[in-house]
Amino acid sequence: MRGVANLTQILDNWRFDILSQMRGLLQNDHQSLLPDYARIQPLSEALDDLYKEFNALKAHLGDLTEKFSAIETFIDEVKAGRNTNADAGPAPSGGIVPVVRQGGRRVLKKKPTTA
Fold first, then answer.
1. Residue 97: alpha-carbon gap to chain centroid
2. Adjacent-strand bridge partners of 97
């Protein structure tokens, strides 16, 4: 037991000495422990460039979102117009008549007017 107690005391003394030396170095000579910030500068500049690029992409995405919202509004209005035109019934004579082609596309042809 006495050997274990002595070993514990020795390890505790080493811990105290190591922590004291580390505290002294951090307070008095921190340059020896901390990295050289001159080497970190290019990394910092690259990170800054990446941040600027991200913000530019975010702004561009905002612009595209605004454009698409206008397009979505227009498409909704066109769809609403089609629904009201389909509910109105057949087109009057002499007007524009849709001709359905394959693929579901419509081609508008004017009926010839007889004079």
1. 46
2. 109
Q: What is the pTM of this model?
A: 0.34
Name every residue whose Cβ is closer than 8 Å to that of residue 101 and which is 6 or more positions away in sequence. Answer: 107
How far apart are alpha carbons 53 and 62 in whole angstroms?
14
Helices (H), 1-115: 2-28, 37-88
Amino acid making up residue 105: R
Angle at 68 between CA 62 and CA 51, to 5 degrees: 20
Burial of 73 by CB count in 10 Å (0-12 exposed, 13-18 middle, 19+ buried)? Answer: exposed
How many angstroms separate the CA atoms of 15 and 10, rounded? 9
Cβ contact 59:66 at 8 Å: no
Amino acid letter for position 92: P
pLDDT confidence band for 107 (50 / 70 / 90): low
